């Protein structure tokens, strides 16, 4: 049975009228309007999601400091991201995954879609570890190491979450059969093989047409259950600062055997509700219409 994730938290917040154009992105609302984050999470839970991913993707202590917040307040906001997702739950069995986005996300310049920042694995581990420790201390059910652009950062994230006592998934942003950094997916997914903390490996923030092939590679290379939560299929025009094209989200992108499925950018509660209806088996004893 496939476990349903949520969709794009920022997408839902923007649909609710919020401008997320500053460097903190959705994390800005942790300080400015936390009730709206609860409402956005709740919309996805009501749509059928079983796992909500926190508003911490682009949050970091350094980013909060640049916004004029001291370390104590930064720690409070990171922990709050977990508490708000937990508050939004609408039924028993719903889970919270604390988002750990890539280093590039905190630059707010799109470099998470390129990777290769010129930093060593040790440098990246040192960056991710404090945030991972804070998020883990808030008691999430899972850690979401997501939108990872290259193998070096994946290795750093796995080191950063080591011994924190919280299961995690590892999800790359990809293009075709390569990471955004250009490495073969076979190499990328293999870094999780044998790591008992990692409960699933896969892809997010990618074209839905790339999911099926990537899912097969992920399963074979990692020996892990597969997670997939692509974008809608629309494209961001950075010059015009708008999305172009049409959504291809549907469910045709979802291959058999994916253990965790949801959406990323431009995927809202209605899309998740449609996906929920498509992947939920008929009730016991029911007959096809």
UniProtKB/TrEMBL annotation:
Required cofactor(s): Zn(2+)
Keyword Protein biosynthesis part of the UniProt annotation: no
Domain of life, per lineage: Bacteria
Pfam families assigned: S-methyl_trans
Start and end residues of each Hcy-binding domain: 1-279
Keyword ATP-binding: no
Cofactor mode of binding and number, as noted: Binds 1 zinc ion per subunit.
Positions bound to Zn(2+): 205, 264-265
GO molecular function: S-adenosylmethionine-homocysteine S-methyltransferase activity; zinc ion binding
Segments traversing the membrane: none
Listed GO biological process terms: methionine biosynthetic process; methylation; S-methylmethionine cycle
InterPro entries: BHMT-like, HCY_dom, HCY_dom_sf, Hcy_S-methyltransferase
UniProt-listed Enzyme Commission number(s): 2.1.1.10
Keywords tagged on the record: Metal-binding, Methyltransferase, Transferase, Zinc
PANTHER family per UniProt: HOMOCYSTEINE S-METHYLTRANSFERASE-LIKE ISOFORM 1, ZGC:172121
Stated name of the protein: Homocysteine S-methyltransferase
Taxonomic path: Bacteria, Bacillati, Actinomycetota, Actinomycetes, Pseudonocardiales
